[in-house]
Specification:
By secondary structure, the protein is an alpha/beta fold. Helix content is 34%, strand content 18%. The chain has a nine-stranded mixed beta sheet, with helices on both faces. Strands 4-5 form a two-stranded antiparallel ribbon. The chain has a two-stranded antiparallel sheet with strand order 11-12.
Length: 284
């Protein structure tokens, strides 16, 4: 098993902005419980394995989970620069930032929407991400304030929607697609999580949450289906240990699905021509 690695990322004085050549991609879902954060973690590491410099922002202010998924100890807090900027925590080769680094896991964020949106903006704009190729933003579920704030405060290259094949999840995934279309953010593709259960003992496959729902939804909206992730106990077990499956079993079948999704995501990004280079402004 690979060791969990985390460090405070270094930063040169005066380095305030993410490279203008980078991409900002929101990983979103219409509802909770579809495994969006686990997908985001493994997708980020898969991109890193393919030679990219990757940032990961945990934008779920109320229920951040990336600290646990990345195996970063609870006592870890980000260093500051100039009393204003945060240095990202490096974990598994990723530059990461999360509200979990700034508050105890047992402390609920009892904030109204505008306060949560303001906190997300601070994490986005006051973190010294440095020269990265892509920033993945693990969004909270739903289509509310934080999603709108991110769309307004940064030039998103696009969004990836995570869903399960279940009809109720697909209903909310449609809302997510429609929301990003309303704010002129291209949907880069769908990832169908928990697509089928594969028995670890006998290999029998069963579609517990329905079959090919994500594939049908992708066809309906004319967007790529980036991957269909099986429901597997190994993903859960390694996630609880803070070790993404793409690192734990990099040559395994599960890792291969994430790695293929990462490649297709980058191919989709390369094929589109953004109106302007995506940047994050550090000024108010």
């Amino acid at each position: 098993m690979l060791p969990t690695e985390y460090t405070h990322a270094s930063q040169q004085d005066g380095e305030r902005e993410v490279s203008a050549s980078h991409q900002v991609v929101a990983i979103a879902s219409g509802k909770g419980g579809v495994g969006k954060s686990t997908v985001t973690t493994n997708l980020a590491v898969a991109l890193s394995q393919q030679g990219l410099s990757v940032g990961l922002l945990d934008a779920d202010i109320y229920g951040p989970s990336q600290q646990l998924l990345l195996g970063v100890p609870e006592s870890t807090t980000p260093d500051q620069q100039d009393g204003e900027f945060l240095l990202p925590i490096e974990a598994h080769g990723l530059k990461t930032m999360s509200m979990a680094y700034l508050a105890s896991a047992r402390t609920p964020m009892v904030w109204r929407g505008p306060m949560a949106s303001s906190a997300m903006s601070q994490l986005l704009e006051k973190t010294l991400w440095g020269d990265i190729d892509i920033l993945l933003v693990d969004m909270p579920p739903g289509t509310g304030d934080i999603q709108l704030t991110l769309s307004q405060r940064s030039t998103l290259s696009g969004a990836v929607i995570v869903t399960t094949p279940q009809d109720i999840a697909l209903l909310d995934a449609r809302k997510g697609i429609e929301m990003f279309e309303k704010v002129d953010v291209p949907v880069l593709g769908l990832i169908e999580n928990m697509a089928a259960y594969v028995c670890s003992q006998c290999g029998h496959t069963e579609a517990l949450f329905g079959e090919a729902g994500g594939e049908r939804l992708a066809q309906q909206y004319g967007v790529p289906l980036l991957g269909q992730i099986p429901l597997a106990s190994a993903i859960r077990a390694y996630s609880d240990e803070g070790l993404p499956i793409v690192l734990a079993e990099p040559a395994g079948a599960l890792a291969t699905v994430y790695q293929a999704a990462a490649r297709q995501l980058m191919e989709t990004l390369a094929a589109q021509t953004p109106a302007a280079a995506p940047t994050i402004s550090m000024s108010d």
